[in-house]
What does this fold into?
Amino acid sequence: MKRYVIKSAFGGLQPEESLFSIPYKEALNPAQYEAVTTLHGPILVIAGAGSGKTRTLTYRVARLVEEGVPPSAILLLTFTRKAAQEMLRRAAALLDQRCEKVAGGTFHSFANLTLRRYAEKLGFQSGFSILDRADAEDVINLLRTRMGLNLKGRRFPRKRTITTIYSRAVNKVLPVREVIFEDYPHFLKEAENLLHLCGEYKAYKRENLLMDYDDLLIHLRTLLANNPDVQETLSQTYRYIMVDEYQDTNKIQADIIRFLASTHNNVMVVGDDSQSIYAFRGANFRNIMDFPALFPGTNIVKLEENYRSTQPILAIANEIIGRAKEKYTKVLFTQKGYGTVPALVAAEDERRQSLFVSQRILELREEGISLNQIAVLFRSGYHSFDLEIELNQRNIPFVKVGGFKFMETAHIKDLLAHLKILANPLDTVSWHRVLLLVENIGPKTAEEIFHCVTRSSIGLKGLATVKPKPRYARAFERLSKEMDSLDGSHLSLVETGAKLMRYYEPILEKKYDDYPKRAKDLEHLLTIMERYRRLEDFLSDMALEPPNASVDDMLATDYEDEQLVLSTIHSAKGLEWHTVFIISALEGRFPVTYAARSDEEMEEELRLMYVAATRAKENLYLTYPINIYDRGAGMVFSRPSRFIEGISEEMLDHWSLVNEEEEE
DNA sequence: CGGGACAACGTTTTT
DNA sequence: CGTTGTCCCG
It folds into this structure.
């Protein structure tokens, strides 16, 4: 007898033909699917950690393009430019190259591009220069001195504090006086002067065509608010808007979105209220809850299934966020039921903590976990200093993200200042910097010179109108000639940079003992310049998205090899690793001491710990040194972070470190 | 007035 | 620990 088998799932009939090449339904869970396929009207996606937020955005970009929406009509605003590029790259991989053409970037970079196009509408006839934090401080310092506010014996706030106050006022939409009252009551007696100085600062920026980071947002909002025609045009240009990390946006950014969407309301914002970690920058996690009020008829979608972490890791994360005073909107679950219980590791001191982390990393490496799959996270940049030494000794390659900035080093800023002058001869901040580098020129002389130049109103050619005193005449002529030869020359950007570097090299050697190292940094800057054609583009990018690795890190990257990641938690946002170490999880460092000032700040620290813990897929180690060195008190005992204290052994393995000899 | 030497301070996270 | 402010000399 022959057996004839009827196959169960073979159809001569094709399944219902899809209009789309991408199997959205199969690739997404129902909530994600809804978010991806609801293309019109406002949508708020509450996306828990690891719930496929990026996936959802990526698929939605592809979907829009597949539906026939021109890529240039889609605007994707993210927290870093890298995040936007990555999403568009993935969307392109799903569908096709068109997705790369979608307009994407940060709020600041978008503002920069738009404002340059409409500069004249705001009275910035010939463009503007961007002041980074340090530049802004320099301007304030200059004005403070000019106003005679920093007389000795008087306790006037430092330039850094002043800048912080102004920025906070802008970002939180509060009067300066209010910020002083709330956060710096001890400076209330200087409130009048601070207000006056603030006015001077604004005027100065306007006169000299300068914008700081906050101005980019403020001016964009003003542009949209005061020019209905521009608002209409832009809204019609960007007919589909998506905003990532919405929990970390502030009121100004919300207003901008409101204006941009005014003609269509096609806005999808994605965020997680329990991952809001930028309150210090004016972000308010309640913003995300206000979205439906801003856009009536908002569709709310919640993504609660976590695809990233194992159950034991998620249990810790839920325990941490459960300690928050504010109640949150969702509870994460996972189907990865297995997994190793996270460990709490008490090390005798910082040194031992470093030994543990590096040794454990090497073991994981042996087990076949690539260094790329491992990250060490910390609250503040300096927490990893000791570990960095140990990693260097053991030849474990790493990149450090966050904390100190290559761009902020003096020699890089020096060279950039020369370029900034070429781009904007009214940029007095850069003039100041450039002139101070010339021998025998100090603040007073510098000011005289650039007054002379700006008053001539013939741009850089105004250098010729300066009559230098013999003291500095020779060195000044050298600068003058150099700038004159570059002004209006047909050299490419990188050639200009190289030429300037030859000019700057003697100054560098005179100024710094470690000039060979710094010269290397500058070489590296030249290789970055090669990628740009326009000076303005290069300068904007350096201000808005500066490369954040130093030259040593860059060299390591050249090998395209495995690298361990060291990162501040803020810079680790949105990323994930197989194994995560959270170091220095102790009272005073994490939460930082200052957080005790207010409940809000403490809550934010807690969310920060939550963000850190939810970066881990398989392994999570929390470590803390028992003895730490405190500058005031010397060695002091420390307690583990309150955010993880008292968690049961079942949920969190407690490890103590033992010396090899002692163990025998 | 510019520049170097020295003391004091306060210390997060980032566009 | 590195930056910021002050003092004093050339």
Summary: Residues 124 and 206 of chain A are 8 Å apart (CA to CA). Chain A has 26 helices and 18 strands. The two ends of chain A are 73 Å apart (CA to CA).
